[in-house]
Amino acid sequence: MAFPEPAAPSESILASWDGSPIRPTVVHIDLGAIRDNFLELRAFAGPAELLPIVKADAYGHGAVPCARVLEAAGARFFGVALTEEGVELRRAGIRSRILVLGGAYGDRYDLLVAEDLTPLVFRREHLEGLATAARAQGKAAVAHLKVDTGMGRIGIAPSEVGAFVDAARTFGVQLEGVATHFANADLADSELTERQIGSMEGVVRTLSSRGLKPRWIHLANSAATVTRPDAHGTLVRPGIMLYGAYPSEAYREKIRLRPALRWSTRITHVKRVPAGTPVSYGARWVAKRPSVIATLPVGYADGYPRCLTNVGQVLVRGRRVPITGTVCMDQCMIDVTDIDEPSVGEEAVLLGPQGEAEIRADELAAWAGTIHYEIFCGIGPRVPRIFVDP
Ligand SMILES: Cc1ncc(COP(=O)(O)O)c(C=O)c1O
């Protein structure tokens, strides 16, 4: 059987779509809140410089727009995890010093040098790769030394500092900074943090005994920026607080921050169902009463966790309503029986405020058995970010 030829798409129809979102699932990012949070943190940092952490697309908030607004507000440093992230910022015109924190440089030291990205170094091959690339490009090889004082992730042991500094000298790598990372700074039990600070003081003494006084000494994440002035060194590296979230509940009373992210969508379908009606995969929710079920065009492919099945809540008309049944890849359902005549097109908020109500990232994370960092970073690239700067 011959099938009819499909009609060629009309150029004018294709040209009429500028790529703007069709599905109403969006994230709004308040850049003004990010600027205010930066200024608030700066007040805590005292004389120390601030290095905003904008890795993982600024914790899902959009690295380039966030870095632009922070650079305009006075940031002179940025921290990313990957070389790729640093290159993205450079290509967007960010001129501040960018530290690449993650240690996964592959063999692309040439890119680090060409884009003036400063790596954290802690292995001999980092020194060798950086020195070779810098020599080839006629530039200075500049790095920060990463010491592992108790995080157990990356960095040289404090006992290896002397030998590493000697190796850096041999390779001609200039160590203009020294860094460590706290494992527990947000926890009430400060014993490990105390030990890490003590260990870092020892590292700085060792460097000094070798004639090295790095300009940049940095340890502090958000938590330590606010509560540990003794760990400020000369540079602090806040991340989560820039985005208006608290590392843990105890920090809420210590600093006033404004959440920057609001995740919303709109109802695509509403139906009345009799008691006994199953909803979604596996029929894991069954109506106990005659119910009104609405469908939302957002699912786990967007980063809304599947484990919020029968657990999550969203806001409709400023009221909390429950997720009913299994969260699907692109959609999920909510029980709007108690909302008066809900309609297609009405807004539902997954995260953030609506009217007087709010769903906070830490609350949503607790439902999902994770932390808000993961919720933020998990909001997928399929969800358009809309930047506002009121
Ligand atoms: C090396 C390093 N510094 C600073 C931060 C910022 O931490 P926080 O978001 O808790 O402020 C991170 C985040 O994971 C990090 O890995």
What are the salient characteristics of this protein?
390 residues; Lyase, Ornithine Decarboxylase, Chain A, domain 1; 2 domains; seven-stranded mixed β-sheet; six-stranded parallel β-sheet; 12 helices; 20 strands; 22% strand; binds pyridoxal-5'-phosphate
Structural features, described:
With 390 residues, the protein is of the alpha/beta class. It folds into 2 domains: 31-253, Alanine racemase (TIM Barrel); 261-388, Lyase, Ornithine Decarboxylase, Chain A, domain 1, CATH 2.40.37.10. The protein is 29% helix and 22% strand. It is built from 12 helices and 20 strands. It has helices spanning 11-15, 31-45, 55-60, 63-72, 83-91, 109-114, 124-137, 161-171, 191-209, 222-227, 361-367, 372-378; strands at 26-30, 49-50, 77-80, 97-100, 117-121, 141-146, 173-179, 216-218, 235-236, 261-266, 269-273, 278-279, 285-286, 291-296, 313-316, 319-322, 332-335, 347-354, 357-359, 385-388. The strands form 5 sheets. Strands 1, 10, 15, 16, 18, 19 and 20 form a 7-stranded mixed β-sheet that branches. A hairpin with a 5-residue loop joins strand 12 and strand 13. Helix 2 packs across helix 4, helix 7 runs parallel beside helix 8 (161-171) and helix 11 packs across helix 12 (372-378). The mean pLDDT is 96. The site of pyridoxal-5'-phosphate (PLP) has 10 residues, from loops.
